[in-house]
Specification:
With 382 residues, the protein is of the alpha/beta class. Helices cover 42% and strands 16% of the residues. The protein has an eight-stranded mixed sheet, sandwiched between helices. Helix 2 packs across helix 15 and helix 11 packs across helix 14.
Length: 382
């Protein structure tokens, strides 16, 4: 199905864009949800007509709009392996008849559903977030699915989007596939109150913060293990959860010493409170491209202790203090060093703030997506 290309004079005002593959907005889960929320509302501010597809167990079914963004809430099967593909299948079918000028589908595992959009004339970009087949949470079948999905990601979408130069090079060197690299962003905003700090009994610059989904490749268990060897009374606040990892989370909690606090997942103003007040943030992820939690910690001017991977070094650069998460003693030594040297922490806080301001602006990220959608719309109309 062909359609008329939007005129250059009014392209930004009239572009109709669909965003699929995440749990939806408002963001209360992970990086893809953060991307959807931050990007969609800024696209609307630039005059685009934007629809975000949401899962019925995640979003408010009665809500049809969020900050000017249209919400399409559809059902799914709420299981570990079917939640994402079933919802994306239904979303792609629904969006295929929506006459969108362009679509963005996130998660490499959703590559299989891209042809449903393209066959009705919707040019579609696929966003791949790191190398999912390396995540420990997937069994043999899950890893096979992601390996196949990586191959499909190189063939089925109109355009491929990567979020880190390391991942971009992987696709170029291993698959011969070029991509558009667009990172995540951060927009620091002062917290409106201190309710979460008060509830958890925390003081400004008086605690260590860890934020991530509690999954094996994010290493919450190793951070907790390392903290047992860190001297002093400084609390470690472990923020996070995971919908299909109850036994793993219970084991992490059971192994922690009394200084470790587990408040669960925290979003919005409460999350900003913690970022704004932490003394140091520990980022221990092994898999993925640009991690939103690391970018956000830097944007709020935190001293960041970072597991040493090429992707994490690309993000943190000289602002990061690096450790090997597979050597708990290494992390314990680094934490003890930073807690004993406030000047070291202060110096790296400023480096992190400056790097985030220079490299990770949501406004700049949105500008890149607008240009991408305009190119896709022209290709769809030709």
């Amino acid at each position: 199905m062909s359609r008329a290309a939007p005129s250059s004079a009014g392209a930004r005002r009239r572009l109709r864009v669909a965003l699929l593959g995440s749990r939806g907005i408002p963001a209360r889960y992970g990086g893809y949800e953060t991307l959807m929320e931050e990007l969609s509302r800024r696209l609307v501010e630039r005059g685009l007509d934007v629809t975000v597809y949401c899962r019925s167990h995640y979003a408010d079914r009665s809500r049809r709009e969020h900050h000017g963004v249209r919400l399409a809430v559809l059902p799914t099967l709420r299981t570990k392996h079917l939640d994402t593909p079933v919802h994306t299948l239904l979303s792609a079918i629904h969006a295929a008849f929506g006459r969108y000028d362009a679509a963005l589908v996130v998660n490499a595992a959703n590559a299989l559903f891209v042809p449903l959009l393209r066959c009705t004339g919707t040019p579609t970009a696929l966003h791949v977030d790191g190398l999912e087949q390396e995540r420990a949470k997937w069994g043999a079948f899950g890893r096979w699915v992601y390996r196949v999905s990586e191959l499909l990601a190189c063939r089925l979408p109109t355009a491929l989007v990567t979020d880190a130069e390391v991942i971009q090079r992987h696709f170029e060197e291993r698959r011969g596939k070029s991509s558009t690299m667009i990172p995540y962003g951060v927009e620091p905003a002062p917290p409106r109150d201190r309710a979460v700090l008060e509830r958890l009994g925390l003081r400004h610059r008086g605690f260590v913060l860890y934020v991530s989904r509690f999954e094996p490749e994010n290493n919450p268990h190793r951070v907790v293990e390392a903290y047992r060897d860190v001297p002093g009374e400084t609390p470690l606040v472990m923020v996070g959860d995971a919908p299909y990892a109850r036994s793993f989370i219970e084991a992490v909690r059971a192994s922690a010493d009394p200084r470790v606090i587990f408040p669960g997942a925290i979003y919005g103003d409460g999350y900003r409170e913690l970022l704004d007040a932490a003394l140091v943030c520990v980022h221990a992820t092994e898999v993925g491209g640009t991690h939103p939690a690391l970018v956000e910690a830097m944007g709020y001017g935190n001293c960041v202790l970072v597991h040493d991977t090429p992707e994490n070094r690309e993000v943190a650069g000289a602002a990061g203090l690096y450790f090997d998460v597979r050597r708990p003693g290494n992390l314990a030594e680094m934490l003890a060093r930073v807690l004993a040297d406030p000047k070291l922490a202060a110096r790296h806080r400023e480096l992190a703030r400056a790097r985030a301001k220079e490299r990770f602006s949501w406004e700049a990220v949105t500008d890149r997506y607008v240009r991408l959608f305009e190119r896709l719309a022209v290709r769809g109309g030709s």
